[in-house]
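Hi P.,

Sorry for the delay on this. The queue was packed all week, but I finally got your sequence through. Input first:
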Amino acid sequence: MEIIASLIDFILHVDRYLEAFVTHYGPWVYALLFIIVFVETGVVVMPFLPGDSLIFVVGALCGVGLMNFPLACGVLLVAAILGDQSNYMIGRHFGPKVFQWENSRFFNKRAFDQAHAFYEKYGGFTIIAARFMPFIRTFAPFVAGVAAMDRRKFSLFNVSGAVLWVFGIATAGYFLGSVPWVKQNLDKVIWGLILVPAALVVFGALRARLSKPA
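Then the structure:
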C-alpha cells in the first residue's frame, strides 16, 4: 500500500519531485525522464505512470530555466518512439504464440481478422490519438502488434504521434507553466490532464457500447 500511495503522490506532485531531482542530481533528470516515458509507453503492464502531466511539467521547468528545452524534448521524443516500438514488438512476438491454436480458448480467428483489418484501415489515427489518452496509449501499440499492423505504417504513425504529443504538451507547459494561475493551481492542471482524456475514453466506450444493436 505504501508503494501505491507513493506512486499516487508522485503522479499528483510530479512538479515537486522533478524540481527536487534537478536540484540534487542535475543532468541525471534526463535519464529519469527517459526511463519513465519509455516504461509508460513500452511496457504494457505499466500504464499508470505519468505521461501528459510529466511532459507538461518538464516544459514548465524548461520555461523557468531549470532544464534545457531542446534536450528534454529530444530525450522524451526518443523514449516515446522507442517505447511504442517496443510495445508493438512485444505484441507482434507474443500474439502469435498465444493465439497459435485456432481452436484454443484464447484464439478467436474472426476477432483477430477484424482487429487486423481495423488497424490496417484506422491504425494510423488510433496510434496518434492514443498518445493523448492515458492507459490507451500503453495498450494501443501492443494491440497493433498483436493485430499484425504493417510495421512500416506503424512506425510512421508512431513517430508522428510522438512528435505531436511531446512537442505539443511540452510547448504548452513552457509557455503556460509560468502563468500565475497555472503555477498556483498546478495540481488542478495535473488532475485535468489525467481525468479529461480518461473521461473522453469512457464516454466513447459507453457510446460505442450503447450504439451496438441488441
